[in-house]
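Summary for the lay section of the report: proteins are chains of building blocks that fold into shapes. Here we show the chain for Transcriptional regulatory protein IclR family and then a coded description of the shape we predicted for it.
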Amino acid sequence: MPSPGVAAVDRALTILAAFEDAPEPMTLAELARRTKMYKSTLLRLMTSLQEFGYLVQLADGRYHLGPTPFRLGAVYQRSNSLHDRVMPLLRQLVADGTESPSYHVRHDSRRRLCVFRVDSQHSTLDRVEAGALLPLDRGAAGRVILALDGEKGEAYDEIREGGIAVSFGERDPDCAGLACPVFGPGGKCVGALSLSGPKPRFTGDTIKTMTSLLLKAAIRLTRALGGPTDLLDAALAASVDDARPARRARR
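The coded shape description reads as follows.
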């Protein structure tokens, strides 16, 4: 379906989006392949993007993001109070000995965005960074977002009922994670808090301990955002008295 916006702007943003999952600077040919644009079109648009600092051309001829996206990201963080509410909670989870905590939001119909991340104190970690785009249908955080957005299926019904998702080897065969929703005004799920790390450290005892810590953090964040905590309170009570086990998205 064609975009209702300005075609040239759409194409320029498509060029910038091509760098989201690029591990290194790209040649013009690689950019043409990723964006499906002619090289002549790319060069015209990239001249403007370079002029405003969105792109830079390196000495070897390859292209990479320039300083302007970084500056805009800094402005976003300064003006977004969510950073000041989430990051202290993530740091406290690490101080309490959990695996690496992250905060995720829906990016589009297929992907979630890791907005904030703090690495745990363990020597081995899973590979997740702030700014990473990850699949919605693989991993505990993605399944929580899908469940609270109404995705159909027994596994999602269990997440909506229990407030917790646990996944083993869904996105990375060597890693595991657990996640719970965060609510805003009107009871809308605004994101997911998660803990993730190497699969061997997710034992029955550690999952139970981390579930309790994660739910307490989600309750504090939900209250700060003005959302209801009923589901999270019930899940916490269940985790404390071991009335029912955490839900597993997939072994």
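Put simply, here is one thing we learned. Residues 204-224 form the longest helix (21 residues).
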